[in-house]
Amino acid sequence: MTEPTAVALDGATVAFRLADGRVYTAVEQANLAVDHGEFVAIVGPTGCGKSTLLNVTAGLLKPAAGTARIFDKPLNGLNRDAGYLFQADALFPWKTAIDNVAIGLEIRGTPRTEALARAQKWLTSVGLGAFAGRYPHMLSGGQRKRVALAQVLIRDPKILLMDEPFGPLDAQTRQIMGNLLLELWTADRKAVLFVTHDLEEAIALADRVVIMSAGPSARIIGDWPITLPRPRDIAEIRMEKDFHALHREIWGVLKDEVMKGYVQSTQAGAA
Amino acid sequence: MSRVTLMALQVLVAVVTLALWQVFSTVPVFGKVLLPPFFFSNPVDVFSQIVKWFSTGVIWKHLAITLWESILAFVIGSAGGILVGFWFAWQPRVAAVFDPYVKMVNALPRVVLAPIFALWFGLGVWSKVALGVTLVFFIVFFNVYQGVKEVPTTVLDNGRMLGMNERQLMRHVYWPSALSWMFSSLHTSVGFAVVGAVVGEYLGSAAGLGYLIQQAEGVFDVAGVFAGMFVLSAFVILIDMAVTAVEKRLLVWRPTAAARD
After folding, report:
1. Which of A53, A58, A244, B30 has the fewest CB atoms within 10 Å around its CB?
2. How close A66 comes to chain B (CA, Å)?
3. Spans of all domains in chain B
4. Of B161, B172, B252, which has the smallest distance from its Cβ to A84's Cβ?
5. Is the Cβ of B252 closer than 8 Å to some Cβ of chain A?
6. A251 contacts chain B (CB < 8 A)
7. Does B41-250 carry CATH code 3.30.565.10?
8. What torsion do the CA atoms of B88, B92, B93, B99 make, to the nearest 10 degrees?
């Protein structure tokens, strides 16, 4: 039995109307497929529309052209199969850590005591069992990301969308979070679409790395399978020869785009 | 500065002020009393007036009336502010249509409404409540409106992605956000509820602290006016302390809650 493709973007184009009336095309003709249980990382220069593509998959944005299919069904409205880990803090600041995690179950109608018990288990599995009663502002940036991860995973989404989730964290915390993510992902192998600007992070985590060109009208310009063996340790895998070979190969393509993106961003700033 | 020194200095200010007041209003300097008792009374008289009010128990009735008016004004004004704030935030068109009128009414010094309210609602409790409501309403309204509008997009998107429907978004996202804005202005809105009550009483009533001050003024009883003012300040400080306690409890989740004041 073959599982249907978890995410299939076909010719997805996203355009915004700017304040001055011009149309800005963020992403053009993107074709992307994520298989069931596959971990795909999208890498691209800053402002290339990686997050835009993720928002299309989440159903938060409607593509101007092209289609998005989720498990072979056209996406209409929000993607109910997906959990979304945002780049910015998205926890509810007025709820404690455990309430933040339990809410995804509670709104489904799970009785509160059961929701809390399961939330406690999830907090424990992201290493925050002792922090259930803390409010988000009492937690560090890394701890808040852990809570956010538990908040998303407790609903057991079939697809996990991650928008530079570890971007704001320091290098060590990023590695720890990366390993935690891989550990949790290995347990039940969800389809993951992981957006990052960090190529090393992408190679270390993913089964496939997709490269996007600099915006506007960003396109998908490369797709590399990452055959490094699993289980992986994010910190150690970076030392290996295969990792370096892949990195050199992909960076050769990405480098030009990063420079283009940089030049464009400085020009936009000057204009 | 240590806590004790600070307290000592604070008490010192009061003692010196009262002492100077007492001296200049009773002891002639170069044959002239600088603070004529007729206009300035003196601390001893003011204090004995306060003691008399409390020992005879007259004051309790007035305090109770003012407190009751303030509470009613606060509750009704807040409820109205919350309802309209949410309504406007949900319906931008309604907000746009009413915008100039909201600004106009808010710009109006509310004291001028007191005679109208006295005509409409009589000299009893309700004309004062009405005055307080017009003050409290706008503060709560603006804050709730802002609170609903200022929910971070990410938090809202997160709620949606977690599967919340509109009703659940309301309960778990908009409502707490609006309330937190409202609570952050709790001191102001409660203060205005008291102002509404006292000003209303002062302009026409048969009971309350404002009435007490107005009565004393009417018979040139300056000691009574000052005594009323002191009782009123103490009353407001007590209410403010209660508000602070409530606020600490309700806004535990806010990083600024402890750092403020």
Report:
1. B30
2. 22
3. 1-40, 41-250
4. B161
5. yes
6. no
7. no
8. 60
